Amino acid sequence: MDEYTQIAGCKNGNCPKVFVHNNRVFVQGMTDASGQFTPPEGEAVVEIPLDVLREAAREVLA
Length: 62
What we know:
Blueprint: E1 5-9, E2 17-21, E3 24-28, E4 30-31, E5 46-47, H1 50-61
Antiparallel strand pairs: 1-2, 2-3, 4-5
């Protein structure tokens, strides 16, 4: 079974998180509604707190 490992964000509930699987990173966050981005079909822009991104960076660079 493929395993996705959470490396940052809250541990319980529906909130910003960062996962890794193989050499890929997956981010869970709020869908951006600012209208500043126009991602192509099949992509989305999500918003996460900067501290969650920093936590994820520390984990993958450790």
